[in-house]
Amino acid sequence: MGWNPFRRAPLLHVADDRGAGPVVVLIHGIASSSVTFENLVPLLEQGFRCISIDLLGFGGSPVPPDCEYRLEDHEAALARTIRRLRLRGSFTLVGHSMGGLIAARYAARNPGRVSRLMLVSPPIYLDPRELSDDRDRTVQDLYLRAYRFLRENEAFTLRNAGVLRRVLPIPGMVHLDAASWDPFVKSLEHTIESQTTISDIAALRVPVDIVYGTLDQFSSPGGIRIAERMRGVTVTRVRSADHLIGKRLARAVATLLTPTTDSN
Fold first, then answer.
1. Which residues contact 164 (CB under 8 A, 6 or more apart)?
2. Domain 14-257 class?
3. Phi, psi dihedral angles at 230 (to 5 degrees)
4. Quick one: DSSP state of residue 22?
5. Which of 94, 113, 209, 211 is most buried, by CB atoms within 10 Å?
6. Would you place residue 232 in the very low, low, confident or very high pLDDT band (cuts 50, 70, 90)?
7. Which domain of life is it from (predicted)?
């Protein structure tokens, strides 16, 4: 019998809680952990309380063996964890990659809790048949085929994840091994490939920022263009930045989150 979504959701691991001021909750992406925000938190902690949470199945969070890691599973665990934090008032929610999809669902399901939503390098995907541009359809179809290949070829995927771990500039940015294979493959299929991001954004009445690099290996131009036309959505493209939150992307995110003071 599979994991029951109506059963009490697990509490997630709060990996970091530092700084003082308005609250920013940070949610990482698939096959990673809160180390994702290593370049960002130091830029924010002087003016914000930065809370980094590991997603269900990743980092220091629980790995329920019978969980399907659907979008609703991730959101329920995040919601319970945020309730446990007993935060006063609303907060800014920042999600990187798959964390952005979960953050959008949380914001849509918990109106009044999130004052601002920021999606960093979000893989906003749709069914290719929903895209009118031929190139957008081709790109989207290639991503979905590639993800299906990764899910169905464990040895290949784990081997290449090991290579990535050795070459990425931030140690621990990619964490995928035999122990985390189940959360990875199920999250890929049931959250990234089965997302509701566009409809979740449409339900929001708060500002939404989408920030991504022009070299992002996982961005879907068609999905981002659709989101950009929606009410309250602002898109920032960061030149020469890729999917990860390196120093260039971290500076862009921090600049957007930090209010400027008019010297006049």
1. 174
2. alpha beta
3. -85, 155
4. S
5. 94
6. very high
7. Bacteria
Q: Specify the amino acid at residue 262.
A: D
Q: Amino acid letter at 182?
A: D
Q: Is 19 helix (H, G, I), strand (E, B) or coil?
A: coil
Q: Which two tokens stand for residue 58?
A: 């990743």
Three-class SS state of 146: helix
**DSSP string for residues in 24-59:** EEEE--TT--GGGGTTTHHHHTTTSEEEEEPPTTST
Distance, in Å, from the CA atom of 178 to the CA atom of 120, rounded to the nearest integer, reads 27
Amino acid in the structure at residue 88: R
Q: How many CB atoms lie within 10 A of CB 7?
A: 10
Tell me: pLDDT of 66 over 60. Answer: yes
Which amino acid is located at 200 in the chain? D
Nearest to 243 by CA among 153, 158, 164, 142: 164
Starting at the edge strand found earlier in the chain, the sheet holding 23-27 runs 14-18, 49-53, 23-27, 91-96, 114-120, 208-213, 233-238
| Arithmetic mean of pLDDT, 77-81 | 98
Q: Running DSSP on this structure, what letter comes out for residue 58?
A: S
Task: Please give the helix or strand (H or E) that residue 262 lies within, else none.
Answer: none
Per-residue pLDDT of 141-197, as tens digits, reads 999 999 999 999 999 999 888 777 666 666 667 788 888 999 999 999 999 999 999
The H or E element that residue 223 is part of is helix 221-228
| Residue 57 reports pLDDT greater than 70 | yes
pLDDT at 5: 52
Lookup: tokens for 64: 């329920």
Count of CB atoms within 10 A of residue 241's CB?
22
